[in-house]
Amino acid sequence: MAPVVLNKKRGKNWQKPPLEKKQRKNDPFVEKRSKTEEISDDSDSDIENEEVKDPQEFEDEGEESGSDTGSELPSDGDDPLADDFLRGSDDEEKGPDSDAGSDSDSDSDSDVSDIEKKSRAIDEERAREKEEALEEMQLNIREESDEFRLPTKEEIEEEKQQPPDLPNLQRRIKEIVRVLSNFKDLSQKGTSRKEYVQQLKLDLGSYYGYNEFLIGALVEMFPPVELMELIESFEKPRPICLRTNTLKTRRRDLADVLINRGVNLDPLSKWSKVGLVVYDSQVPIGATPEYMAGFYMLQSASSFLPVMALAPQEKERVIDMAAAPGGKTTYIAALMKNTGLIYANEMKASRLKSLTANLHRMGVTNTIVCNYDGNELPKVLGLNTVDRVLLDAPCSGTGVISKDESVKTSKSLEDIQKCSYLQKQLILAAIDMVDANSKSGGYIVYSTCSIMVTENEAVIDHALKKRDVKLVPCGLDFGRQGFVRFREHRFHPSLEKTRRFYPHVHNMDGFFVAKLKKMSNSKKTSAGPQPSETVEQQTPESNVSNGDKKTEENSEQVLMKKATTKAKDLKKKTSGLAENGNVESPSNEKRRKKRKFPSREEISKVREEKRKTLREKVSSKKAGSKDIGNEK
Amino acid sequence: MRPLDEAETTAVFEKLFKFTGNNLKNIVENPSHEGPDPNPGRYCFRLHKNRVYYVSESLVKRATNIARPKLVSLGTCIGKFTHGGKFHLTIQALSLVAANARHKVWIKPTSEMSFLYGNHVLKGGLGRITDSIAPGDGVVVYSMSDVPLGFGVAAKSMQDCRKLDPNGIVVLHQSDIGEYLRMEDEL
Question: Measured between alpha carbons, how far is A115 from A118 in angstroms, rounded to an integer?
Answer without folding.
Answer: 5
